[in-house]
Amino acid sequence: MSDSVETAAVTAVPAPVPPGPSGTVVRSTVMRRLLRNPMGIASLVILGSIALLAVFAPVLAPFEENFANITKTLAPADSVNILGTDSAGRDTWSRLLFGAQLTLLSALLCAGVAIAIGLPAGLIAGYYAGKFEAVSNWVVSILMSLPGLIVLLTIRAAFGPSVWISMIAFGVLISPSYFRLTRTAVQSVRNELYVDAARVSGLSDWSIIARHIFSVVRAPIIIQTAAIAGVAIAIQSGLEFLGLGDPTKATWGVMLSEGFKNVYLTPVLLLWPALAMALTIGGLVLLGNAIRDALEDGEKIKHRKKRGTTSAMGAGPTAAPATARPSRKSVAAVDAGTEHHLVKVTNLGVGYPQADGSIKKVVDDVSFHVDRGEILGIVGESGSGKSQTAFSILGLLPDNARIVGGAIQFDGNYTVAPGDERVNQARLSKLRGKRISYIPQEPMSNLDPAFTIGYQLVTPMVRVLGISKEEARRRALKLLTDVGIASPERTFSAYPHEVSGGMAQRVLIAGAISCEPDLVIADEPTTALDVTVQADVLDLLRELQQRLNIGIILVTHNFGVVADLCDRVAVMQNGRLVEEGSVRDILRNPKERYTRTLLASMLEGKTPMSMLVSSQKEPVA
Amino acid sequence: MIKFIAKRLGSGLVVLFVVSALTFTLLYTSSGSIARNILGDQATPEQVALKEQELGLDQPLVIRYFAWLGDALSGNLGASWFTSEPVASSLATRIPVTMTMVFTAMILIAICAALIGVAAAVKRGWVDRVVQVGAIVGDSIPGYVIGVLLVTLLAIQLGFFPATSTISPEVGPEAWVYSMTLPVIALLINGVTGGAQQIRSAVIKQLERDYVRTLRSRGIGEREILFKHVLRSAAPAGLTVLSLQLIGMLGGVVIIEQIFALPGMGPLAVTATGQSDLPVVMGVVMYTVVVVIVVNLLVDILNGWLNPKVRVS
Do B240 and A6 touch (CB under 8 A)? Predict the structure, then answer.
């Protein structure tokens, strides 16, 4: 329906785009990208031609819009009436041109009214919040619960047929879409540092809004305007199609209705207004999509650059050496004679295909192993590839990730055989949960908010161990006690949002050990927690590891955690393994400069710890 | 949960009151000389004054509104100024026709958009591309244009379907379903293309959530993750999309009914609007707002059931 376009325009609020360092630079690159996109060019050409035809309609049209030659009705196309005439003998081509004029003007009026109301209201509601926001939210919810066409019918009944009045009314009705978009965008930048800085430097609220916030909402507003102009054209033409428009004006809606009345005689009369509408609205839809794509591409490039600087991986051909890739047959099983480890990672490489066909490596030539009853720490700053390494072992890499080299064995079996492009999911899906488990970084986002904690503990046990629900429930309560939760019954029946972050992390640890795995991979398990809770969680991990004799891979950026908990440590930088060895050796005698830098950054200003490393002989507890 | 429903119901009633007051004010203050419109140019001033008195137009607006409200609460929405038929009874005969179409179309939209949208999100590839292109095409062609083209092509040119659908269920279910097919298709195409794309985005957003990865790490199968967790979390967004589409459809169906000459709310609303038959226009607006409020209430309740967080807040 015309109106489902309206709903799309209201719901599809484009994400606010962070402003570039300089607005004009961003704009010009977006414009360039838009012109490179075939969809963008096509839409600009279509809309541009329609706009030109509309502007020059009085010159281009051979007849007045209402000039009727009653001796020549429903005539086919000829040299005088190039698209024929309608039932009153009016020239179809001329009316189409004048219709374009009125249609575009009315769409502009509607969008203008909607912006004039929605933008300031959104800015105020987003920037100052408070009562104004509450009231406007309420008004918005009312406006959005009214079908546009019904409102326009009411307006028509009250004010009579006028394109302008109905478009002003529709502008008011659809202004919530600008309001919501602006408010969301403003809220997201209101507390950004650069806005704070502007405030501190004494800029008035209005100049902050004008300079910083306006640059954020500009692009989404253009996209939204394209959508709303299309909806306005559809609904105004619909009103005219119903015969409720101004009868003295030539419009596409009237022409469509005229064509429909004569559908048995000259169905072609329908075609032209329908085509004009589809082209115009389609052009607007395409334009909106193309601008959005151009902005999103810009984001991706910015993103890539940012990543590129932190983890400047060699862009050149970094494929693993051919010798490190033996033929698949020879290594299908455990290599005879190699020592048996719980997990053995050999020359692992992980990469992501880029738009230009190359593969960007995020993990390169990484090897290490973990045994039962041992805790290996993988240390590195963000972007060093430590999490990617951990997720390769779990087989939980994102869909577009590729294994570009090396192998992973779990308990002697390949989960990534040499030469494989992807993790062997068939094998890993039998191991995950049962023998390998995972403790995530951010406790809250890793529990499904729609299910109770009990459900999320019980189900994996039922699925993996095949035990009954009652048995699983009994075990879950015991697990909750084991991880130090004081009231297991209450936590069991609570929803995730009803417990604290530290509690949620204990629940996730309980979940990780619920099926008695051999290996637990913990990805920054304490980073998101309060300092006091961090120590508790680390104690818990150590205790569990000793009691259950499991292997743990602990991914962290914090050498303190490593020193506290780990037996061995692997240091990663830019996707490569820098150094690997026992915690004692590496803390006491770091060979690589990078390791020393990491250690120094951790130790800076922390006297007791620096004592631990520099003067004492026994650095690790 | 009861408190939650009561609160939503209360705010719905407030909306109903506000919208009725605003509409009433708008209609009755700006319509010019209503009595003269009804009687025509030949009427004498005395006749006009008499008519105004008869319609109660000589009373102040506030009194008239509360009189209307009092009557409306007892089920009396006044009578048409032109046909003298009670508004409530003409609504009662027409609402079933319109609602049958709207709900048939909505159910089909919900099923098709959900299936296609979820498939596009999970499988990506060509299904995804078809959904993307379909959304652009659907957004570009208003539903009534699709309706007009469908009638022209399938009914008039090819004769597959009846061009008008004035028949009622009494003629037998088969012919009735047959005649309703085209209008329902015209109603649902935009909804399916737009809805599928929005449901696709909602599902993709959920699939990328952290807890999905954690569920995988716990050994839960992909199927169970999709159907039990992801779809449940994506459902509120999907429901919002569908409820907005339904609101839009209450307007769109007016034009579709006009195209197919269906005896639903559409022709009533269009005629009343053209004649400024204010009691009928008022009745049409009230029926629309009531439908919207009921639908929004149902969506809220469903969301509360799906998401425990909504219930407590």
Answer: no
The pLDDT tens digits of the residues spanning A520-533 come to 999 988 877 777 77
**Cα–Cα distance, A480 to A453 (Å, whole number):** 10
Distance from C-alpha of A30 to C-alpha of A65, rounded to nearest angstrom: 40
Question: A282: which residues sit within 8 A by CB, 6+ positions away?
Answer: A46, B136, B137, B139, B140, B141
**Alpha-carbon distance values, A112 to A102, A118, B97 (Å):** 15, 10, 38
Collect all residues with Cβ–Cβ distance below 8 Å to A554 and sequence separation of at least 6: A375, A376, A377, A378, A522, A525, A541, A561, A562, A565, A566
**B224 close contact with A: CB closer than 8 A:** yes
Element (H, E) at A436: strand A436-439
Rounded to a whole number, what is the distance in Å from the CA of B107 to chain A's nearest CA?
15
**What are the start-end ranges of the E strands in A279-435?**
343-353, 359-370, 375-379, 402-410, 413-416
B145: nearest CA in chain A?
A: A274
Counted across chains A and B, CB pairs separated by less than 8 A come out at 260
Per the CB < 8 A criterion, the answer to whether B28 and B309 are in contact is: no
Which of B227, B137, B256, B129 is CA-nearest to residue B190?
B137
The answer to whether the Cβ–Cβ distance between B254 and A260 falls below 8 Å is no
* Token representation of residue B149: 């083209």
Model pTM score: 0.80
- Residue with the two structure tokens 């040119």: B157
Complex ipTM value: 0.87
Q: What is the pLDDT of residues A45-84, one digit of tens each?
A: 999 999 999 888 888 877 777 777 777 777 777 777 777 8
Running DSSP on this structure, what letter comes out for residue A393? H
Q: Smallest CA–CA separation between B169 and chain A, in Å?
A: 25
Nearest CA in chain A to B188: A1
Nearest to A442 among B190, B195, B210 (CB): B210
Please state, in angstroms and rounded to a whole number, the distance separating the CA atoms of residues A501 and A388. Answer: 24
User: Looking at the predicted structure, is the pLDDT value of residue A415 above 80?
Assistant: yes
* DSSP-assigned letter for residue B97: H
The C-alpha atoms of residue A424 and residue A278 are separated, in whole angstroms, by: 49
Minimal C-alpha gap between A279 and chain B (Å): 8
Question: Is the minimum CB–CB distance between B229 and chain A shorter than 8 Å?
Answer: yes
- Point out the residue among A7, A150, A434 whose CB comes nearest to the CB of B245: A7
B67 — contact with chain A (CB < 8 Å)? no
Contact in structure between A619 and A588 (CB atoms under 8 Å): yes
CA of residue A551 relative to chain centroid, distance: 35
Q: Are B161 and B181 in contact (CB under 8 A)?
A: yes
